[in-house]
Write a structure and sequence with these properties.
This protein folds into two domains: 89 residues, no CATH class; 100 residues, no CATH class. Helices cover 0% and strands 34% of the residues. The protein has no helices and 14 strands. It is elongated and about 80 Å long.
Length: 212
C-alpha cells in the first residue's frame, strides 16, 4: 500500500475494462487493521478528478471534490457531501433525486429558490430565513397604479412573529408589501404594479426576501 508514484513496486495497473462479478471492499474494517481503513477510494471521469471520493482517514463520502475555485473541503462534522452549482439548472451541477427524499433529522437550507406560475392565494413553502422566488404572472394586470398582481403566502418554520420581513424585486415599478406573520409561521407578499403600463400574462418577476 502507498506504492503509487514511488519507486516501490506494488501498484496493480489494469489497462482495459475490468468486470467484477462479486463484491469489492476497499480498506480493512477498523476491527481488523490499525491502518488499512485509512486508504481512500477515488473515482475520476473525463472532466472531473475525484467525482466520487471516500476519505478513509476522515470518514466521509464526497461527490465532486473540486470546482473552478479548487479543492472542496467539507467541514469536520460532515459524513456525506454532494457538491453542485448554484443556479446550475439547465446547465450542469444540479443534484437530482428521482424518488421520495426522507430525513429523520433537521434540514438546514442557506437560501431557497422557488420557480412558480403564480396565481393569487398560492402558498409557497420555504423553510428558511431568506429566500428567492422566480415567478410568472397568471393573467394580465391593469396599468392603474397600485393594481395587485398577486398575493403569495410564504410558509416558513424558521420565521418568528417578532421578525421584520423585507422583500425586494428586480423589476422597476413593481412594489412589494410584506405583512401578517401569523402563529403558523406564515406571512404574505402583496405584489403591486406601479410601472404605468399593463403587465402581461406569463411575465417573470424575481423576488428576494429576508426575515430580520
Amino acid at each position: 500500500m502507498g506504492s503509487k508514484g514511488s519507486e516501490n513496486k506494488g501498484t496493480a495497473v489494469f489497462g482495459g475494462d475490468m468486470v467484477v462479478s462479486g463484491g469489492v471492499e476497499v480498506g480493512a474494517a477498523p476491527t481488523e487493521s490499525t491502518d488499512g481503513s485509512l486508504q481512500d477510494f477515488t473515482v475520476n471521469t473525463k472532466d472531473s478528478a475525484g467525482i466520487i471520493y471516500v476519505a478513509g482517514n476522515h470518514n466521509y463520502v464526497q461527490f465532486q471534490t473540486s470546482d473552478s475555485s479548487g479543492q472542496l473541503n467539507p467541514g469536520p462534522d460532515t459524513f456525506f457531501h454532494v457538491s453542485g452549482t448554484i443556479n446550475g439548472k439547465q446547465n450542469t451541477g444540479v443534484a437530482v433525486f428521482g424518488g421520495d427524499v426522507v430525513t429523520s433529522g433537521s434540514v438546514y437550507i442557506d437560501k431557497s429558490l422557488v420557480e412558480h406560475d403564480m396565481a393569487s392565494g398560492t402558498t409557497v413553502v420555504q423553510n428558511t430565513r431568506k429566500g428567492s422566488l422566480h415567478l410568472t404572472t397568471d393573467g394580465t394586470t391593469s396599468a392603474t397604479p397600485g393594481s395587485q398582481i398577486f398575493m403569495a403566502t410564504i410558509s416558513s418554520s424558521q420565521v418568528r412573529e417578532e421578525d421584520v420581513i423585507i422583500a425586494t424585486c428586480k423589476s422597476r415599478g413593481i412594489f412589494i408589501s410584506a405583512h401578517g406573520i401569523t402563529e403558523g409561521r406564515r406571512f404574505y407578499l402583496t405584489v403591486m404594479n406601479n410601472t404605468g403600463v399593463e403587465i402581461n400574462n406569463d411575465t417573470e418577476i424575481h423576488i428576494n426576501w429576508v426575515a430580520l
